[in-house]
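Notebook, student rotation project (T.W.).
Task set for the rotation: take a protein with a known small-molecule partner, predict the structure of the complex, and write up what can be learned from the model alone. Partner molecule chosen: zinc ion. Sequence and SMILES entered below by T.W., checked by me.
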Amino acid sequence: MFNVSRPATAPVSLAKLKKYDSGDVYQAICDIFYNKCYLCETKEPHDINVEHFRAHMGDEILKYDWNNLYFACSRCNNIKGDNYNNLLDCCNPQDNVLRAIKHLPPTTPYAKTVQIVINLDSESAKTTKDLLDKIYNSEHTINKKVSGAYLRKKIFDQYNLLLTQINSYYSPIATQEEKNTAIERIKLLINKDQPYSAFMSWCILEDEKLSQLLGETID
Ligand SMILES: [Zn+2]
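Predicted structure of the complex:
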């Protein structure tokens, strides 16, 4: 997961209390969430939902509350349903969602699982870990099993890009210029506007030398 900053001013259409997913809301949340699902971190997903962070269950205030509307892919929205109402909040600066949940990438293209590890002792961190585990690893339906494998493959492809740069940086024959280029490219890949940046960032945080070099730039 990745933290974002939400502007206080709500899109105007919400004031009518008729639709929570009008064009201005879509545009605003696309911008705020870098066109990424806030849960699985897929960039530019095929199917976008305006997701209620806390399930509204018919509550009109929660339904049209600007602060309750998030950018999610339909797969994550479907998995989350109404069942996870105590998650770490990526819009709350008090919740460091990246550091709270360690994301470790798949080590092969068709790895059966990725590791989601709780790093903070709180109920909301535990609930978030449970949901992310289900999103990335669950085989609870055949559809989710197949789409989960596709998702892990996409994470692996991004991880592979990162590994190429890490290998360039650590190559015994790398020139200083090549090392500098590799670091700049690693910075691009761990930026939160990039797909699966939590996985990429955790690769760096888990590396003794790169974490010293880049750890402070990761939030
Ligand atoms: Zn998603």
